[in-house]
Specification:
15 helices; five-stranded parallel beta sheet; alpha/beta; rod-shaped; 639 residues; eight-stranded mixed beta sheet
Length: 639
């Protein structure tokens, strides 16, 4: 069978080929048998005629009577297939030849030989053979008959014709039967195949309704059951998809609600805190008694703790939502370590603790590549945590490095304290969010329990690990292990981030437009800016700020984001559009917003602002942001 042929053709071939093969074998056998029978008949006829002619020609041969021999030959020639008759004597000499002049063309001659014998004499009175002739008959000659094979060929043609007619009839009948049977099988199969194609197309409502019997009926029933199962499965799948979509939508809604809530709470908490922190910073600059100065420092410290709690909650929320992005750059580790320790040196000295740094010489001068802001955040959390839980002794920050390849360093930053330590059975809970060793610890030392959880997650984001070694009463050691890419020199200075500890606010020069709708925050920012030596012009909404910016040039614009009439985003976009239309040099715009989320910063930069400063801010932070625009070399006050 031909590979890939349809089932109907295969069934037809399967039904016809064996039958035709058997019919052919039978036909050949029968035809061959009948050919043999015709040949034997011809042989028998020829032999009989030759024998009879030999018997009747004894006298003519003995007597040399040729007339009698001719008469015998002519009588024999009445047989249509006989072509010639030859009489020979015992020496082979032809006595008489009688033949036809019109021989059949293309036919072969079959000769039959029969000996002519002298028969013994019989006594007519006694009917006995004479004693002189008791010996065997004596051969006196031979008769030869030449018969044409045309009779045999004609008979063979009749036999073939008689055999082929029923064979062709049987073949036609077999083909018709095979076609009928194939159609009876193939048509239901094509129908069932169509059902399966419909099911494959996704229409599970289709059902087979043909009146099929036997195995085909069972197959149709199975297909119907399959269609029913698929339809039920699709209904269940669609139901599950709908539930998943609803759950996903609900989760998205909940996530968005969470983000909106955090943003709102961040704004609502940071706005009044900005006023409190700003006022305390202004109060710190006034003349105070020693007692008043102590009160001011306690208030500033408490405000800082509250701000740390808010920042921890926001950072943890961003990490859990996968929105904490890293910004890897090349920087030197030495300044970062010194900066981290100097930040907490006052707190350590206040508690009577030592805070020292030990580092390998291999670290000096190496510029490593990672996110310095997040690495410093990890160190600050660990150092702050160590100071909090240490009452005697101190904290040692050690930095070691091991070069594993030509441009890779294995760096370990360890923060070791002599504090209360952590029992081994409670260490596994330490890195869980909102978890501390026990409730008494929270009441005694305070905190949300997020610092170490954030530090571990940030360490993992940086490609490292944060591990703990501690015993109750024996202090604790937190170790950050990182593998960092490093260079001794960086060809492009733009890739290097310089980290320093410039906490002293600088004296600035220039004209600043302060846009703020909250009266307290407006007063705080204005007083701090004036103390830095800056000339300040104020506006209470975006529309008023836009009008003033179009009237005169400012060295910098401090723009609140959420304001009535026109917010800071829209005001900045309209300002940039006006500057492009007028061909003006863009004025620097710095966003002042109580929303510290990363998305808010990205929105501010996308609107055309140059920088972003989250409230509440310290004098040093404000000075650091304004310095690139209000140094004496760049300021153009009174333009």
């Amino acid at each position: 069978m031909k590979a890939g042929a349809g089932i109907r053709k295969q069934l037809q071939l399967l039904g016809v080929v064996p039958a035709l093969f058997m019919l052919g074998l039978l036909l050949v056998a029968l035809t061959w048998q009948r050919f043999e029978d015709a040949d034997r008949d011809l042989q028998a006829l020829g032999s009989f005629m030759a024998s009879q002619l030999a018997s009747s020609s004894e006298y003519g041969v003995l007597a040399g009577n040729y007339s009698d021999l001719r008469r015998q030959a002519q009588l024999a020639m009445q047989q249509a297939d006989l072509q010639y008759v030859v009489f020979r004597d015992n020496d082979g000499k032809v006595l008489l030849y009688e033949g036809r002049e019109d021989r059949v063309a293309g036919s072969s001659i079959i000769e039959f030989h029969s000996g002519i014998y002298r028969q013994p004499l019989i006594d007519t009175d006694t009917m006995r053979v004479s004693a002189n002739h008791r010996d065997a008959p004596v051969r006196i000659g031979e008769v030869v008959l030449g018969m044409s094979s045309s009779r045999l060929l004609a008979r063979q043609k009749e036999i073939l014709l008689a055999s082929l007619i029923p064979a062709m009839s049987a073949m036609i009948l077999g083909l018709w039967i095979a076609h009928y049977l194939a159609r009876q099988i193939a048509s239901p199969l094509n129908y069932l195949s169509g059902l399966l194609r419909t099911l494959r197309g996704g229409d599970y409502h289709v059902r087979g309704t043909s009146n099929l019997q036997g195995e085909l009926g069972d197959l149709q029933s199975d297909i119907n059951q399959l269609a029913g199962s698929l339809e039920e499965a699709r209904i269940d799948q669609q139901s599950a998809i709908n539930e998943l979509q609803a759950a996903h939508k609900q989760a998205q809604t909940a996530s968005q609600a969470k983000s909106d809530f955090l943003a709102m709470m961040s704004h609502e908490l940071r706005t009044p805190m900005n006023g409190v922190l700003g006022m305390l910073q202004l109060l710190e600059q006034t003349r105070q008694s020693e007692e008043q100065h102590e009160y001011t420092q306690v208030a500033l410290e408490s405000t800082g703790h509250l701000l740390d709690v808010i920042n921890d909650i926001l950072d943890f929320s961003r990490i859990e939502a996968g929105r904490m992005d890293l910004d890897p750059v090349f920087f030197e580790l030495d300044p970062l370590l010194d900066n981290s320790l100097s930040t907490f040196r006052y707190l350590a000295e206040k508690k009577g603790l030592y805070l020292k740094l030990e580092k390998d010489a291999l670290i000096s001068g190496k510029r490593v590549r990672t996110d310095p802001t997040r690495l410093r955040q990890v160190l600050n959390n660990l150092i702050s945590n160590a100071i909090k839980f240490t009452n005697e002794g101190g904290i040692t920050v050690s930095a070691s490095a091991h070069q594993v390849r030509e441009d890779w360093l294995d760096v370990k930053l360890a923060v070791k304290d002599t504090g209360i330590g952590i029992p081994e059975d409670k260490q596994s809970r330490l890195f869980q969010a909102f978890s501390q060793v026990d409730s008494s610890t929270s009441r005694r030392f305070g905190g949300t329990g997020l610092g170490l959880a954030i530090a571990r997650k940030l360490s993992e984001m940086l490609g490292g690990t944060l591990t703990l070694s501690s015993s109750e009463g024996g202090g604790s050691t937190f170790t950050v292990s990182l593998r960092l890419f490093f260079r001794n020199e960086v060809s492009d200075d733009r890739e290097i981030v310089l980290i320093g500890n410039d906490d002293a606010p600088r004296t600035l020069n220039g004209l600043v437009l302060l846009v703020e709708d909250n009266e307290v925050n407006l007063m705080v920012a204005r007083r701090i800016l004036e103390q830095m030596g800056v000339t300040v012009v104020t506006a209470v909404n975006g529309r008023e700020a836009l009008a003033k910016a179009e009237q005169r040039d400012f060295d910098c614009i401090l723009m609140d984001v959420q304001m009535p009439v026109m917010d800071g985003m829209e005001a900045t976009r309209l300002l940039r559009q006006w500057e492009r239309e007028q061909g003006r040099v863009p004025m620097p715009v710095i966003a002042l917003t109580a929303n510290a989320m990363e998305e808010e910063r990205e929105r501010c930069l996308a609107a055309g602002m140059n920088a972003h400063l989250a409230k509440p801010f310290r004098r040093q932070q404000l000075s650091r942001v304004l310095t690139p625009y209000l140094t004496p070399e760049r300021a153009q006050s009174g333009r």
